[in-house]
Q: What sequence folds into this?
């Protein structure tokens, strides 16, 4: 039971680390009547200025749209970026799970440190 608790806590910490972020400029358009509208665009979707949104797997991204820009950061971890000695690292939606290499149904505690590449 303690092994499972430690592993779950460790995985929870990994989910919060090492985010990649990017900025894009907001768009303002004017109607024929002079009304201005500002929005941010992500993958052809338009989000109103002042909006914050989060997309689940496989996107795993959080964005904040303001009147001047949109700031987006990836969240979670990809198994390709993590090495845990003595465990297999498996993608699990926007996070990872450390599993026993001999029995992938069992959670694993690494024998040494976890490396985020």
A:
């Amino acid at each position: 039971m303690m092994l499972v608790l430690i592993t779950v806590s460790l995985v929870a910490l990994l989910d919060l680390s090492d985010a990649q972020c990017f900025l894009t400029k907001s768009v303002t358009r004017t109607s024929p009547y002079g009304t201005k509208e500002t929005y941010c665009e992500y993958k052809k979707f338009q989000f109103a200025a002042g909006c914050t949104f989060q997309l689940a797997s496989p996107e795993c991204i959080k964005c904040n749209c303001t009147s001047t820009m949109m700031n987006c950061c990836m969240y979670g971890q990809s198994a390709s970026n993590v090495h845990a000695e003595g465990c297999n690292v498996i993608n699990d939606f926007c996070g990872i799970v450390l599993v026993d290499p001999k029995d992938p149904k069992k959670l694993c505690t690494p024998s040494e440190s976890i490396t985020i590449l």
Summary: The helical segments are 2-15. The radius of gyration is 20 Å.
